[in-house]
Amino acid sequence: MRSRGFLWSSWPWRSLGHLVGTLVTAPLAALVLFPFGMPLILLGERLEALALGEPQGAWTLAALSLFGAVLLLLGGPFVALLVAPVERWRLRLVHPPIDHGHRATGPGLWQRMRVRYTEAATWREFGYLLLLVLLLDGLTWSLLFLFPVMGAFLVVSPLIPLFGETVALGWWHFDDPLTALPLVAPGILLLLITPYVCTPAAGVHAMVARTLLSGRGETEELRSELVEVTRSRARLVDAFETERRRIERDLHDGAQQQLISLAMRLDLARMDAPAGSGMERALIQVHGQAKEIIGSLREIVHGIHPKVLSDRGLAAALPELADRSPVPSRVRVDLPRRPPPHLESAAYYVAAESLTNVAKHAEATEVRLNTRLEGDTLVLETIDDGRGGADPEGGTGLTGLADRVAVVGGRIWLSSPPGGPTRLRAEFPCPPFE
């Protein structure tokens, strides 16, 4: 609509044609739907009579309302199945084609009706039918009357007195072409505004029709995409876990064993070297460096995936992790069953990173590490008595923690007022695992 060539494009005419089509299909749909809605119309008349003071039996009203509702629910979807293809075909004026989304049915009328009346697509079409008849039709009539019809009427109004007729607009009457001539300008203005009113109106109508008449609405597409993202995320978690264990195994069985063998050979060479010689001092120095490298490599392997976590689970790995923390730690683990391996790895990572953050930033004298199962949720909490004021944007690794927990479908809460204490709570969905 903002483009310069909008008025000369086909969009104004297509939008106007779609709205005019509504004035054809909606009355026909209402005519077909009328017999099914007749009891409800009679009910409305009875209620109006009751409001005016005319007596009416309560049982009659209840029976009429129940009968009307049942008849409308039985016949309305059938009418919607007839109207929906016409509306999808008419929608092509302003929107690309959409699919109906109905399932294939077997032979026989009963089989076809059973499938159709149990489909969500059928009831969405019924909802669209009610909107078309009760709301969209009236709004379209009003819009077309106020702009193109009234605009065209005002433009030709000076010609009407030539045929001996009087132009009547409310209290104003024009029986002379010259006196009706000023009506041409507002008529032209209304006609110029018409494309800028009809096109958005047709767009809104198309949006409603696409949502209710399409076999795969936006909500279903988003739900399908979300399911696929969840599945791909689970596959990535499994792939990361497998790759991490492979790296741990290669480091433990390959590089670490080679370094241990090298350290033993250096120790044997030192014993054969002349005492007090420069060669002995050099071998002692190299042997010490090799031992430091072995120690560092063991820490790296342990940080990737400690063996105790694989063998004995969180209940044994967390106390060992707390023993290595420079801040005095108290651990409480209450796990009646062992969580799945990927959740154990994620929870261990959160605990390790939390203890590291406490040691680096909190200035705490004590930290408590609690792990438990609450129903089907694995909960891990770290509580320290440090200075507080932890900020996820302050480079303390909290954003990385949140991302790591989110990968396995978990959530993190952080409470860290200035002055402390700081409490970090991670929750992981933990269904029973065999």
Task: Offer a few descriptive terms.
five-stranded mixed β-sheet; 9% strand; 434 residues; two-stranded antiparallel ribbon; Heat Shock Protein 90; alpha+beta
Total DSSP helices = 12
Ends apart, CA distance between termini? 60 Å
How would a textbook summarize the main sheet?
Answer: 5 strands, mixed
Instruction: Please give the share of residues in helix.
Output: 55-70%
What Rg is obtained from the alpha carbons, in whole angstroms?
39 Å
Category by helix and strand content: alpha+beta
Portion of residues in beta strands equals: 5-15%
Strand ordering within the main sheet = 3-4-5-7-6
Say how many strands there are. 7
Return the average pLDDT rounded to an integer.
78
Q: Which oligomeric form is depicted?
A: single chain
Shape: elongated
In total, the number of domains comes to 3
Element-level helix/strand string? HHHHEEHHHHHHEHEEHEE
Care to describe what's here?
This protein is of the alpha+beta class. The protein has three domains: about 10-215, no CATH class; about 220-305; about 305-430, Histidine kinase-like ATPase, C-terminal domain (Heat Shock Protein 90), CATH 3.30.565. About 65% of the residues lie in helices and about 10% in strands. It has helices at about 10-50, 60-90, 110-115, 120-155, 175-180, 185-215, 220-270, 280-305, 305-310, 315-325, 340-360, 400-405; strands at about 165-170, 170-175, 330-335, 365-375, 375-385, 410-415, 420-430. A five-stranded mixed β-sheet has the order 3-4-5-7-6, with helices on one face. It has a two-stranded antiparallel ribbon with strand order 1-2. Helix 11 (about 340-360) links the parallel strand 3 (about 330-335) and strand 4 (about 365-375). Helix 2 packs across helix 4, helix 4 (about 120-155) runs antiparallel to helix 6 and helix 11 (about 340-360) runs antiparallel to helix 12 (about 400-405). The chain is elongated. The mean pLDDT is about 80.
